[in-house]
Amino acid sequence: MRNFANSIIRYPPNFLYSNGSQNTFLHFFISNIKNTIPRIFFSHMISYLFLMGSIICEVIGTILLPYSRNFTKVTPSVFLVLFYFLAFVFLSFAVREIPLTIVYATWCGAGILLVSVTSYFLFGQNLSWQGKLGMVLIVVGVTLVNGFKTSPA
Question: What is the value of pTM for the model shown?
């Protein structure tokens, strides 16, 4: 980002050219920002993909808990441990770019919501209206946490 700011100071854009030459502000903006945006955008996007993978692995591992029958069934137990391990590996990659508080709030909130919805369809477990209200509040809370986050200093 420093290169972009320095280039604005050294080479201010000329707004007067509108005859199609390459000295327009748009060309200046695109040529200076095209190398900066992908690094910022894709590093955070990849981190959020790792977070999503972590949430999915954690939900699958949690759903396997009843199938493992207190770890007496070998196959579901092995996959349960594998998915929990993968969840924490993906979580560690997500924490490299996203603040821990954001990652953990999103991971917990989305995990609780997805486990509840999946349990409803797989096991027929229903929530009371208070539980459903709690799920809505979790979604609102995770949205607020992600919407108003600040970058670390």
Answer: 0.68
